[in-house]
Amino acid sequence: MRVRPFRRVPQHKGSRAWKWHQQESDEFEPFESRLRKGLWCPPRLRGRDASVIEEVNDWYFAMLHDRQRNDFYWSALGRLVKGKRVVDIGAGCGLLSLMAARLGAESVLAVEASREMCTLARLNLQRNGLADTVRVVNSWSCDVALPPQERADVVVSETLGTLLLGECAHLHLSDARKRLAKPDAVVVPACGTQFARLVMSPSLASLSAAPPPEACHGFDLSATNALQDTAGLYFTKDRGVRLSSLTDLTAMSQSIPLFSAEFGVTEPHDIPRSMTFQVEAKHSGVVHAVVTTWEAEAPGGGGPVLSTDYESTRGQPWGFFRDMQWGQGIQLVEDFDAAPRLASRGAAPPPVPFQVVEGERLALTVRLSHPDRMSIQFRLQRARDQ
Length: 386
Fold this sequence. Notes:
Order of helices and strands: HHHEHEHEEHEEHEEEEEEEHHEEEE
CATH architecture of the largest domain: Distorted Sandwich
Helix content: 10-25%
Distance between the termini: 45 Å
InterPro entries: Arg_MeTrfase (IPR025799), SAM-dependent_MTases_sf (IPR029063)
CATH superfamily of the largest domain: Hnrnp arginine n-methyltransferase1
Protein name: Methyltransferase domain-containing protein
Radius of gyration: 23 Å
CATH class of the largest domain: Mainly Beta
Organism: Alexandrium catenella (Red tide dinoflagellate)
Strand content: 15-25%
Keywords: Methyltransferase, S-adenosyl-L-methionine, Transferase
Shape: globular
GO biological process, one term: methylation
């Protein structure tokens, strides 16, 4: 297992693509080389890692602004770290390490794969007067080794993606707990649950469909719908969508818990590769998509819960930042069983909308990528016993 906890790499790829991306990430590219010829580069950015600058501006600043996320970690660490040894996996600019040190940890080892972020973390530690408590190590967590007497009482990490396991939190936290922590060490967050929900939203569906004739001077462009992707998951943040702001969004099912993971313990083989859930339609209408969200809990429970559910971010001062750095996963739905078996010669069939009536029983099949369980795919069908 060789992952960079800091880097948010594509989460829909298989393990080969993940490894390929890790190899590519090792190639340094100065920021100015990303700019087109003739464009000016601010002097402070010249010679810096272009990938890190891109990622920090894409999601990392938004993450740091998520006050409820920060409160979650502050509350959890406040109950655990006083007088303890702490390891921070994927430390980034050092926020969680700073928290642990300020809350009384005996020592903190901040492990960060990005050289650029390690430099900034050390500066942040100095500016906050905590450099003597925290040691920053520029390394992948899987390459760090600690003697038994220096192993951690607490392992903390925030490497959760739009999908609960999309950044391999289960893999590197399991590895860290085995090799960098004491046998009775506590992991923060302690556990998480991946959820899915069926939704109806014409405006959401229209982002991946041809417009009606009245929107384009009467022309019928519906043949283009043959290319609509109903197999892959996309992230709302990548399309600038906030589900909490959609006025036509209707939950067509209850939130379905797909699986749970105990961080530091759960291995990929502990999670089934395929599962089918019986779902009841809450309303009559069209199921346009499946929405994925998750919740994460602190050790011992009872404190704040991290959630990416769009209902939890609605109207919250930190909600915008959470939607911009995590957001939700979306997979469009079509009625495969009602679709033509074969396309007519020279024409491709468009996806058939999945019409349901209130109370109808449905079967939602969930497939997870093998062997890492990082990616998710859905297929919705009508229950066979109807």
